[in-house]
Amino acid sequence: FYRFLSIVYDTVVNPFHWTVAMRDAALPADLFPRRDLTVVDVGGGTGFCTEGIVPHVDTQHITLLDQSPHQMAHAARKKSLQGITLVEGDAEALPFGTDSVDRYVSAGSIEYWPEPRRAIAEAYRVCKGNGEGTATIIGPVRATNPVSRWFCDAWMLFPEEREYLEWFKEAGFEDVTVKKIGPPFYKGVRQHGLIMGLVVTGTKVTPGNAKTVLGPILEQRKETVSLKERVLFPLRLILGTIVAFYYFVLPLAIILYAALFIRTPKEATKQT
Predict the structure, then answer these.
(1) Are 186 and 258 in contact (CB under 8 A)?
(2) CA torsion 31→106→50→254, rounded to 10°?
(3) DSSP 3-state assignment of 6?
(4) Which residue has the higher pLDDT, 35 or 2?
(5) pTM
């Protein structure tokens, strides 16, 4: 999946869902007050989010972690990312020490996590305590329109805002803030869900592990695949393709609707 997604991620997917302007709004300069901060970009993929960090932090202090070597191969070829560290790993079992990083950032990754509570607990663990470390997760928001909500739930995880807040606070993060973002050409349309719609940031005050109570890991990489999984895979692939196509066409429909029927205050002023 990622082998093919990585080819079109920056050129086909991002322009409709995760723009440079959105990235700049999600990662403002004041989030990175020093160039020597230790930063991890979890689920960094092709490095699009990481490119929003390098203007503020020297590359030798940045680590991009992803489970897909194909995604990271694209990141490795980007001139702006030369000098960063690339690590293949799992967001739910981070290979970093406790209280070891100044900034944890993850964009467009939570929707793929089997257990977001576990991954956010890991984010808490690796951040420095005593108010030095922060975690920022940029991710989707669930649709309120019933048709689009069905497609959201059938495709992948689209959390609600309250769930982000619950997971952050459960882990132990304090001063948790939420910022709404969205493609500017949507002109505020949010009811169909957004693949990148919320920026949630929390500060770690108490050092050590998260307070989240977790059971056994639900999903782990397996070397062998069962017969049942082999049978279900084509069905899941077909359903996933149909739903993904919906979210490929939907932005075009929203952009057309917004262009024809929604006037921003600036546009309204020009017409008067």
Answers:
(1) yes
(2) -100
(3) helix
(4) 35
(5) 0.91
